[in-house]
């Protein structure tokens, strides 16, 4: 069924100007509840003549935007095109429109009536600049809301030269609110796939101001795009760089704790895989690992064939899971989240089963969405609350 506001537009009860003004005031997409747990979501675009429009969402089998093939339909007598999809009412998801002109070339754009939120630029370019929809029953992300409303001032930028890797990368450091002496020993989180506009410092500040987490530094590590896939895939040299080069560099410049229980390594996707694998192999450095939708199905020998090639395929136990199975239980606390609707959740459930069985202090969460920064940006608050709570018993006495 058509959205009631679209019906008003189609019948002439509302003029295009009034409809456009309403979208500008209330935002998009339009949502109409149709049952206790389902809604109809109407996307609206104003693309111009001779242009087709489709929508892609970060839910589906691809670790990217998954296209919905149905084209937007024109609303007769208006410049608007619309598409209505029935959805679970608890979803939160990133999405983009693809506009195609007469030549067939596509242009990916955010929803013009729902601009990308703050912190929407990502280290992985194909996810950047997307609009976000939060449906009426989506789990709220209040600390992300506070972070967006009051972002952290500019982070301190530097360049780290690595002899181990033979390259350089950008590093951004954000200290918590307040004044700290050189004798301070602040907890800190190192976040892989860092960018200068990452949400982590602002989420941290919101929690610190609320008195819920210990003041902690956030270190954002840039991943040079050409090397990212090689560096983050259980690469022992990259892990040694973090331990042998980045950590001394940080301790020389900032009043940070040397207690591994005060150090967290965090990442999303490949970064989550690297964070878990590095912490497992360096538990005397990293006492906490934050894995957000980690690519824990990875194994270097896993290949996919077609046809008769499949008859030669072998499926080894993924590297991260195999290494946790083989190693003695390490003094490591692990926060782990994954989307219920992403293809990697089966491996995340397997990893959580292994961690629980081996007695790790771990917290596992699934969210109603895909492989999506729209969730990761806000659930990072839960990770900080898990790693560095202000009101908690000293873990050394636990």
TrEMBL record:
One of its GO terms (biological process) is carbohydrate metabolic process. It holds the Pfam family Esterase. This is Enterochelin esterase. It comes from Streptomyces liliifuscus.
């Amino acid at each position: 069924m058509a959205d009631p506001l679209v019906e008003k537009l189609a019948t002439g009860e509302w003029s295009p100007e009034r409809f456009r003004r309403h979208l500008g005031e209330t935002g998009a997409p339009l949502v109409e509840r149709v049952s206790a747990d389902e809604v109809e979501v109407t996307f609206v675009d104003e693309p111009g003549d001779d242009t087709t429009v489709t929508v892609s969402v970060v839910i589906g089998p691809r670790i990217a935007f998954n296209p919905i093939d149905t084209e937007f339909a024109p609303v007769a007598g208006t410049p608007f095109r619309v598409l209505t999809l029935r959805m679970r009412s608890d979803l939160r998801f990133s999405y983009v429109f693809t506009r195609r002109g007469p030549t067939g070339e596509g242009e990916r754009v955010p929803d013009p009536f729902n601009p990308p939120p703050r912190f929407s630029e990502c280290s992985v370019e194909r996810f950047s600049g997307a609009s976000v929809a939060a449906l009426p029953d989506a789990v709220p992300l209040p600390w992300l809301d506070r972070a967006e409303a009051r972002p952290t001032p500019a982070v301190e930028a530097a360049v780290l030269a690595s002899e181990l890797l033979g390259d350089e990368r950008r590093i951004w450091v954000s200290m918590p609110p307040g004044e700290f002496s050189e004798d301070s020993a602040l907890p800190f989180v190192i976040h892989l796939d860092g960018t200068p506009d990452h949400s982590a410092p602002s989420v941290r500040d919101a929690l610190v101001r609320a008195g819920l987490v210990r003041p902690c530094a956030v270190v954002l590590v840039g991943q040079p795009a050409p090397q990212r896939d090689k560096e983050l895939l259980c690469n022992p040299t990259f892990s040694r760089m973090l331990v042998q080069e980045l950590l001394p560099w940080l301790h020389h410049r900032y009043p940070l704790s040397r207690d591994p229980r005060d150090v967290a390594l965090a990442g999303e996707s490949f970064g989550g895989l690297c964070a878990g694998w590095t912490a497992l192999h360096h538990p005397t450095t990293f006492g906490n690992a934050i894995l957000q939708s980690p690519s824990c199905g990875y194994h270097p020998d896993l290949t996919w064939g077609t046809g008769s090639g499949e008859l030669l395929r072998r499926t080894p136990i993924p590297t991260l899971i195999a290494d946790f199975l083989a190693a003695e239980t390490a003094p490591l606390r692990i926060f782990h989240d994954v989307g219920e609707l992403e293809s990697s959740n089966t491996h995340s459930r397997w990893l959580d089963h292994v961690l629980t069985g081996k007695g790790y202090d771990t917290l596992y969460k699934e969210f109603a969405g895909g492989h999506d920064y729209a969730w990761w940006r806000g659930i990072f608050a839960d990770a900080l609350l898990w790693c560095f709570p202000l009101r908690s018993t000293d873990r050394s006495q636990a």
